[in-house]
Amino acid sequence: MKKFLLYTFILFGFAANAQDENSDENDTPPDGWSSEGKFQLLFNQSAFNAEWTGGGTSSMAGNLVLDYSLNYRKGNLTWDNKFLANYGLTKLKDDEFTRKTSDRLEINSILGKQMENSNWYYSFFTNFRTQFSKGYVYSQDQETGLPVRRETTHFISPAYLQFGPGMMWKKSEDFWFNLAPATARFIFVDPDFTSTPGYVDGSYYGVDTNKSSRFELGASVSSYFKYEVMTNVTMEHNLSLYSNYLDQPENIDIDYLLNLDMGINKYLSANLIFQAIYDDNIVGAFQVREVFGAGFTYTF
């Protein structure tokens, strides 16, 4: 985990240098509302006929991505809002079930009041994240040998809501980090998952038996970097860290998301998404996912 954090911050250092080289320090956004959005529909596909001897399984996959920002500025007051939605499915030939490759719904909001002649802001942030649809664990029935699945998650189970005051350093809308040393966090789950016979306290996202939520108080660090790697190639980094003062504060929750967008033309692009999550309330190891695809892009 320490090596992961070190490599991540080194990567952010390169991002910061790229931002500085390409930004104008006197380029202050005008007062009022501004918005920017992007919709992507990405595809992956592979096919093999019956005579193909090299091995392989035909498959199809699709991924929907929506990234929308709505920001407000008036004098030394800023209010930045970001909406992220990502959902993907894949289907392997002869597999009975269609499986998810991506499922994320997240809303971020940061209100800031700028200190005079400084990049520092007094801030208050809110973050909410959950998923759209049911998640499953797949296995085989021991008696019949048929594939089966067991539901483990669904919409608002889990869901995370965290908020708190802090200090934000903001170079631009594409380069900032926020420190919130008194962050309240709520974890919401469906009590059906915590009411099963033999349930052990805390085994489902840290929530106790017959409960539907868990309260935590801790410190939060969040950061965002966006820069152009080369012409028509843009990279985004989102990093969130959280330490719970009330229970094992040394175990830091990590949520890192990388989005690499490679424009082909106005409507076509390729996209790489990489995410790494560490949360010992779920599993004591990194959860990693990677999605790559090409398809349709619409910017608004």
Word description of this protein:
The protein has one helix at residues 2-22, and strands at residues 32-46, 59-74, 77-92, 99-114, 120-130, 135-140, 147-153, 159-172, 175-188, 213-230, 233-244, 253-263, 268-279, 283-299. Helices cover 7% and strands 62% of the residues. The strands form two sheets. Strands 1-2-3-4-5-8-9-10-11-12-13-14 form a twelve-stranded antiparallel β-barrel. A hairpin with a 5-residue loop joins β4 and β5. It has one domain (2-299): Outer membrane phospholipase (ompla), Chain C. The protein has 300 residues and is mainly β.
Keywords for this entry:
single chain; 300 residues; mainly beta; Outer membrane phospholipase (ompla), Chain C; twelve-stranded antiparallel β-barrel; two-stranded antiparallel sheet; 1 helix; flat; disordered N terminus; signal; DUF3078 domain-containing protein; DUF3078
Alpha-beta classification: mainly beta
Q: Could you say which overall geometry the principal axes of the C-alpha atoms support?
A: flat
Record field, number of beta strands = 14
CATH class: Mainly Beta
Distance between the termini: 38 Å
Number of alpha- plus pi-helical segments: 1
Which architecture does the CATH hierarchy give at level 2?
A: Beta Barrel
Tell me the number of structural domains.
1
Which stretches are poorly predicted, pLDDT < 50 over at least 5 residues?
Answer: 1-5
Provide the gyration radius in Å: 21 Å
Average pLDDT, to the nearest integer?
A: 89
Strand order of the largest sheet: 1-2-3-4-5-8-9-10-11-12-13-14
Helix content: under 10%
Strand-residue fraction?
Answer: over 45%
H and E order: HEEEEEEEEEEEEEE
Largest sheet: 12 strands, antiparallel, barrel
* Topology-level CATH name: Outer membrane phospholipase (ompla), Chain C
Protein name: DUF3078 domain-containing protein
Signal peptide: 1-18
Keywords: Signal
InterPro entries: DUF3078
